[in-house]
Amino acid sequence: MEKSLLRFVTSGSVDDGKSTLIGRLLYETNCIFEDQYEAVKKTSKKTGKKEVDLSLLLDGLSAEREQKITIDVAYRYFSTAKRKFIIADSPGHEQYTRNMVTGASNSQLAIILIDARNGILTQSKRHGFLISLLQIPHLIVAVNKMDLVDYSQEVFEKISDEYLTFSEKLDIHDIIFIPISALKGDNVVSVSSNMKWYDGKSLLQILEDVHVTADRNLIDFRFPVQYVLRPHQDFRGYAGTLTSGTISPDEEVLILPSGKTSVIKSIVADNKELKEAYAGQAIVLTLKDNLDVSRGDMIVRKNNLPHINDFFDAMLCWMSEIPLSGSKHYLLKHTTQTVKVYIKKIHYKININTLHRQKTTDLTLNEIGRVEIKTAKPLFFDAYKANHGTGSFILIDPLTNHTAAAGMIREIPHTVSEWKRSMPLAISHHEKNLRWEAGNIPLSIWEEHNGHKAGIIWLTGLSGSGKSTLAKHLVKELFERGCQVMYLDGDNIRQGLNNDLGFSQADRTENIRRIGETAKLFFSQGNIVICAFISPFQKDRDFVRSLVPKDRFIELYMKCDIEVCKERDPKGLYKKAYAGEIPDFTGVSSPYEAPAEPEIAIETDVKGIQENLSLVLDYLVKQQFIE
Questions:
Q1: What is the pTM of this model?
Q2: Which of 535, 546, 589, 614 is catalytic?
Q3: Which one of 1, 308, 545, 551 has the minimum C-beta count within 10 Å?
Q4: What is the pLDDT of residues 587-626, one digit of tens each?
Q5: What is the distance, to the nearest Å, from the Cα of residue 433 to the centroid of all Cα atoms in its chain?
Q6: β-pairing, 227-229 with 237-241?
Q7: 175 CB neighbour count, 10 Å cutoff
């Protein structure tokens, strides 16, 4: 059986021991030659070190060896009986932030090292923010140099608690803390006897066991055409890398931008025909129809389209020493397309030390900001959070041909471009002869199988009241208790299922109707469905309540003073609303109808997240949803 591959990046502040840790992993997994180790051992002895300096295995540049720091990203490969690994050792200095972004861009997991003596430094937070921005799904916080603090449990727990509090501001969901000594080898490959109070796995065991298959997008089929193959007149194939999703012969597909449809005739890879292709594979597709398809086109499923537009919002990591100029054109490389673009607007830049947003007119080296980009022709893309392959791009300076920035598409405007209005896509007609198809497994059997009652927990409240924060904590807690749980979030739903809706009262009602019907589907298979939506109108919430048995709908009112919500303003929406940029904004120019008799009402401006979480869990226990 072929081993799985894990790509991970190490990061942290200067001298936190990143290179030493990787050297330790390479050495103890027998992935270096004996003469390499002897050379490192000899060099360590010459410099008067008592321990072998395994970091020398990675510092390849002379400047790195002289300054004893990492400057460029060092890639290393090693393997165990369970898995293959590719490591990106990224630099810790602030001026090499762009190198860290490069190293982390393809990683599935990140390790942040923190020196136990120094605690959490600015770079520890900076790299945590970058990991969140790049949507790396798994994070390990390794508190290193525990041997220099006498393997103190108190020191480890203090650092862990502080970083966990910081991480709650970020979009990081899977975080593990581990105490290690890279120099001595404690908890790196095997669990150390020096920290008997630690009852977790070693670092290598975590790396071997972390589940990464689910991180790939196997739902949205996206195939950007890179090259058209015509070896002879009887063969026309379209070569490229399957960015996401899966595809099989005889499936109906649609070609963008032409809107023409066809059927997959065959899938070829390594001169063999495949029965199915998966994300990441380099393949050649042939179609049953002779269509005009060329480089830059995208082949997708007819009923699962990407966003198609010539403008969008994105986060930019600026990598050039020449500042971003709003009056200058750039080249944007996205999948197999390269188009001319200009920066229509710079919304803000982020102070990585405080995570605050700051007004700015430009971006300079290593700065990160949110911008609106206008393209010369439409692109076919998804939000980066949903699909890294079609949600990422680079900007190129056309004068120097240097990479100017790495970008992640964050938001798709609800306004539809004129080009999209006239796009020649076939519109499927609504079927009139429909009937509800019940599954052959009753709800009671689902509940018996899952070990808990099914239900819908509906979090409602103003923007900034803490709905998403509490929902995420609740999802994690229920998951850890073994519950079958589904989380529906307002921003996520509007990026996909409801991206055709605006924010008028009619559109808000339709938004909640669709979400309610979606929640009902998950409920019918025994899930606890957690829904976090402003849902300002009582009649819309009552509609969702009507879809399931009365005792299975829990209305959770996130009560919070609007002035507190304005102060929090996590997405900067209130500021935009008061500036007139967002019409019909709930709490400002559109009303919010507070629940009259919610099942649970919590004051998020008075009580903390853990206290509120306990209130919800206590209610679920009392109502016998969970044990």
A1: 0.62
A2: 535
A3: 1
A4: 777 788 888 889 999 988 888 889 999 999 999 999 989 8
A5: 40
A6: antiparallel
A7: 18
